[in-house]
Design a protein that fits this description.
It is a single chain. The chain folds into three domains: 35 residues, no CATH class; 133 residues, Pnp Oxidase, Chain A; 30 residues. It is α+β, with helices and mostly antiparallel strands and 200 residues long. The protein is built from six helices and seven strands. It is 34% helix and 30% strand.
Length: 200
Amino acid sequence: MSHVPSDIAFTPAVKAIQSRKGSRNSYARMEQSGGWQTTVTSDLSEFLADLDMFYLGTANADGQPYIQYRGGPPGFLKVIDDRTLAFADFGGNRQYISVGNLSENPKAFLFLMDYANSRRVKVWGTATVVEDDPELLSKLSNPAYPGRVERAVVFTVEAWDVNCPQHIHKRFSQRQVAPVIEQLQARIAALEAQLAARTD
């Protein structure tokens, strides 16, 4: 039986449910036409360049899942090559759950969200923690960002897919909202000055 990239998520159990619920035929057509991507494309690189947060999924040896929010400067999840992503892992609460999970189970998942534009990208693969590579850590760090780099996480891409935008509520980061607020404040100040000039 031939394997397609989406088999990483569409297990026999998932396909059986898709068949029962009536969606298997459409996904089978997707699989026949090539299906999900397995390498980093220019579209994905462009998406990552503006991303300042994502969710990292790992699981321990028993399969217990864990989701961790990762944040940093825009573009901190970097493309190393067409099958590899990496990011600087900044100091946090020192629980080390993701680090521990990856030490015994390399399977990992990236859930990439662009709330402002209602876009989400799902990336399956494996990840390793790198603590003793100064050149890599230097490449991933950003001197302008206040977080202290403790290690790198290197993610090998096995498959990725763009999810539908339904039900994604728009949210905007402070970085996105600040210029709009500044324009509004400047406009308010100008209007107040005009009003004050008329009443003098």
